[in-house]
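Please check this one:

***
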Amino acid sequence: MKLSLLVVYRNRKSHLESQISWWKAQAAIKATSNYEVIIIEADYNPSSWIQSEIIGTNIRYEFLYCPGVLHKTKALNLGLKLCQGKFVAPFDVDLIPTKDTLEKHWKLAEASPLLLVTGYRVMSHLSEVRYDKVDNALEESTIACEDQPSALWKHLVKGERFGVVPLFERTRLLNIEGWDETFIGWGAEDQDIIERYLQGEKFLCRCPNLVYLHLYHKLEKQWSEKSYIEANRDYYYYQKTTENKNFDT
């Protein structure tokens, strides 16, 4: 198994249906033999429709009882314990690979042991898209927030490293103990794990050949409230400052 994709899910049915239809279309042309998809639903109750929808596919379903705020990092760590791929990627439920992006992505990762290979996303105004209409949606997309000038300045000058669908080596990810579960809700957990993963031995590579379509959604309760975002950002910057001090000494 080359690649395991970990999809954390809660109440995004149109997104997950779009994503599953894409996986099925890829399976029909035998383009999924090198990877597995693990959906981790983090909610009060499991969704029976998902289990029915994935019968006969290479998609696995796991349920994590998660009342209250969505604990994405805990769900990702559950997926990490279960997966078998040489590479592991957190794969947001609102992402759809364009063209042969996914195939290129793991091949680049396989050929580049010193690099953490990541891609880009572009933002769609659509909340769902048929697998055969992805190219059309791509033409009407816009640039993501992380590629706006203020965010780019942080990446290039302040060393805040970020990339879409980072392909982590599973053994190294396990060695750094996966995602930091102090992050609850949305924000900064993706930057934190990239920076911990890269320390000392690897370099970040964002490749413009690897493009993912991001489906539209509104901010959601128990996930993206300002208080959770601020707490996560504060913790991220505290960790970053502490790591820099340790490195300097």
About this structure: The first helix runs from residue 13 to 28. The longest strand covers residues 203-214.
